[in-house]
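WARN  no MSA supplied for this record, continuing single-sequence
INFO  ligand: copper (II) ion
INFO  echoing inputs
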Amino acid sequence: MLLKLTTLTAILPSILAANITVTVGQNNGLTFTPAQITAAIGDVITFTVLSRDHSITTTNFAGTVCPPPDGGVGPNGFDSGLWVICLSINYRIHMSTHSLSDLDGSQPNFRYTVVDAVPHFGACKQAAGGHCRAGMTFAINPNSTFTYTQFLANARAS
Ligand SMILES: [Cu+2]
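INFO  complex generated
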C-alpha cells in the first residue's frame, strides 16, 4: 500500500499540471499575451517568442524594475536570455548559447515550471530596459497587494 501511494503521489502532479501558453511579441508588439498568468505549483508556462529580440526575465515589483537583471530576480526567478529571430530566413539564435537552430521556422519556446505560489513579476530586458518601460511586462500569480496594474506603473516609471 505504501508503495502504491508513493507511486500515486509521484504521478498525480504530472496528470493535474496545466500547460499555460503565453505569446511574446505578438504582431511585433512589445507584449506578453496574456500579461497576467494564474498558475498552480507544477503547472508549466510555455512562452513562445513570435518576433525578434526579446527575453523573458523576472524582475523587481518596484524600484529598479527595468531592465530586469541578467539571471532574473529570485528566489525561483528565471531568465530566458535574449532571443534573436530573423523571420525572413527562418532562423533563431539564443544569445547566451549562440546556437543557430530550427531551420524549419518553428518559434523558440521557453518553459518555466511553477515551483511556488508567490507572485513573480517579469519583463523583457532588451534595449537597456526600453521594452520593459514600454510595458513589455507580465505577472505570474499577482494578488491584491502586488497587482499587475501597480507593477506595470512601476515599470513605466523606472
Ligand atoms: Cu522585448
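Residues 2-16 form the longest helix (15 residues).
INFO  checksum written, moving to next record
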